[in-house]
Design brief:
single chain, 24 strands, Beta-galactosidase, Chain A, domain 5, six-stranded antiparallel beta sheet, 37% helix, elongated, alpha+beta, nine-stranded antiparallel beta sheet
Length: 581
């Protein structure tokens, strides 16, 4: 457990260091950054001018970027087209031919606290700039007069909605949104005239959280915000990556390619999947809400490049609930959005996602048998403990044997007091004679060490797997992914930041009994109380499913110690023998 706490502190310090670096980078002028890429970055000024609603005179240098100068839109009415699919609802706005709103009705068949992923009062997603002309405020012509379109289930024909506008002196630009019926995807296609050379595709409306954040951001406690992830996610051609940052960041500066990029929240991600490796620049800006400084960040996303054959204007807009088996079956590395590891930590980037997937699949298997994820966690705990039982039994017996022979060891220490080397020699000779493993106290940590990756994996599964969202156990435990609060009004920062919880008392009590049964060395009396108190403080804000796992594990240790500890005989004093030289 101490290793887990050290590891957590290390990762927290590392994250703070990364944030300081990003904040330092963000302090540099955005204009200076884009000055290094004039051929691709000039479109940002046009977009900014357009967004501010400036109306330059015809003689002004910026007049070519004004919406009124692009196409004949005077006779085109502003329209919103609501498209309802079995997976989500999207609102297309012909002003900018953008996605102005995106909602999802439920996750795993259960309603969400906030169904709006892209807010209608924001800037939406997928606005376009061509040849430094912003088309964000241009009213595009559309091929449908319907204001509401219903997309059928799997087997029905896809629905395509087209938008067209005229780029002065160049020709017509066409954008097509095709809503697929068999998966939560909008296929986006852009048809450009030959005179277009550069583009910028922007998603400035961010992605909202589906779960309730207010009670979590107001509280202070370990683990509360760990599952409320707000990140930019992308595939750099080798593996999926996740980034949380403040300020501006470019993602394919090192690898040179991007396969897909998007944003993720706790239980959902929305991606632009290019279905190929693209080399256009992908960048994002992370920013915090001043009213909620503890809340996860928001991001805006931008893809900039030249309109060559492999440009990024044709892609799949994927609305992706992070259901593990579904995203794993897509074979696009989407599962690494959910679980990932650090390459520097014993290549955890390879084995840790597989371990998390194994833990989740075992829980789902046990749930299939029992219809209760709380019982599934208990069965998982017992499975892990039975696997490590042979090591635990041997350690328990060796520890008991060493305690039985302590009087004889003390006599050796007294006899050769002052001669450290002789004391060690005689002690080791006595161990060999009695068949005692002197490393038994150290090896006693091995079963707990083997279980620690399972504990951390379960922590991540409970915080991120949509399958366990709102999963009840019994009585007062209504959601195993959250603390088991019984008195919300009884809040103590760090101890009970969301209110009084019950399971931490059971966990700390069983751990205290376990420590008293296993620690007999007077020099380690402090450990009897230290670990239970420390775990009690932390567990007040842990998911109740994790505290349940630890409590059941403690009960197993108590039973194991009671059953497999040899009955105490009279202390062995024995006759001291001098080891042969």
């Amino acid at each position: 457990m101490a290793l887990f706490l050290v590891w957590s502190k290390y990762k927290g310090d590392q994250a703070k260091a990364d944030l300081r670096v990003q904040q330092q980078r963000a302090s540099d002028s955005l204009a200076n950054f884009r000055a290094e890429h004039p051929q691709l970055s000039d479109s940002s000024s046009a977009l900014a001018s357009d967004a501010s609603g400036s109306s330059s005179s015809p003689s002004s240098p910026s007049s070519s970027a004004a919406p009124s100068a692009i196409g004949d839109t005077a006779a085109v009415p502003h329209r919103l087209i609501r498209v309802v699919t079995p997976h989500f609802t999207a609102v297309l706005d012909n002003r900018g031919a953008r996605i102005s709103e995106l909602t999802i009705p439920s996750l795993e068949g259960q309603p969400v606290y906030n169904p709006v992923l892209i807010r209608p009062d924001g800037e939406g997603a997928l606005t376009l700039t061509l040849n430094n002309h912003s088309l964000a405020n241009v009213v595009w012509r559309t091929d449908t007069q319907d204001s509401v379109i219903q997309v059928g289930d799997t087997g029905s024909a896809p629905v395509t909605i087209s938008f067209t506008t005229t780029l002065p002196g160049v020709g017509d630009v066409v954008r097509k949104y095709t809503f697929l019926t068999d998966k939560p995807v909008i296929r986006h296609e852009t048809i450009l005239p030959s005179g277009v050379s550069t583009y910028a595709l922007e998603w400035k409306g961010g992605l909202e959280e589906t779960e309730k954040l207010s009670e979590v951001t107001a509280a202070r406690g370990v683990g509360l915000l760990s599952g409320f992830l707000s990140e930019v996610v992308y595939d750099n051609g080798t593996s999926a990556q996740r980034a949380s940052f403040q300020g501006e960041k470019t993602f394919n500066a090192e690898s040179g390619v991007i396969r897909w990029v998007g944003m993720r929240r706790k239980y959902i991600a929305v991606l632009l999947d290019f279905q190929k490796d693209i080399q256009d620049r992908v960048e994002a800006v992370g920013y915090s809400n001043p009213d909620q400084p503890n809340a996860p960040r928001h991001y805006s996303l931008r893809v900039v490049g030249n309109t060559e054959d492999d440009n990024a204007l044709n892609f799949d807009f994927v609305v992706l609930p992070l259901q593990y088996s579904t995203i794993k079956a897509m074979d696009r590395n989407y599962d690494e959005i959910l679980f990932s590891g650090w390459e520097s930590f014993f290549r955890a980037d390879i084995w840790y996602p597989k371990l998390c997937g194994l833990v989740l699949n075992l829980l789902k298997l046990f749930y299939h048998w029992t219809s209760n994820y709380g019982v599934a966690i208990i069965l998982l705990t017992l499975l892990v403990r039975f696997i490590t039982l042979p090591l635990s039994i041997n350690q328990t017996r060796q520890t008991a044997k060493m305690a039985e022979h302590q009087p004889a060891i003390r006599k050796i220490q007294e006899k050769y007091k002052g001669d450290r080397q002789k004391t060690q020699t005689e002690t080791m000779a006595y161990y060999r004679e009695q068949g005692i493993n002197p490393l038994a106290p150290v090896m006693g940590c091995l079963p707990a060490l083997l279980q620690m990756p399972i504990f951390i994996a379960l922590f991540n599964v409970l915080g991120r797997a949509v399958e366990l969202r709102n999963a009840p156990f019994v009585g007062w435990i209504h959601d195993l992914a959250r603390p088991d609060v019984v008195l919300p009004a009884f809040q103590i920062p760090f101890f009970f930041p969301m209110g009084l919880t019950v399971l931490p008392f059971f966990m700390a009590g069983t751990m205290l009994l376990q420590m008293k049964m296993t620690i007999k060395d007077p020099n380690q009396k402090a450990m009897v109380w230290l670990m239970p108190v420390m775990m009690f403080v932390f567990s007040g804000s842990f998911p109740s499913g994790l505290v349940l796992y630890w409590t059941v594990s403690n009960l197993f240790t108590l039973a194991q110690t009671k059953v497999f500890t040899p009955k105490r005989s009279a202390p062995v004093v024995g006759r001291l023998k001098t080891a042969k030289a």
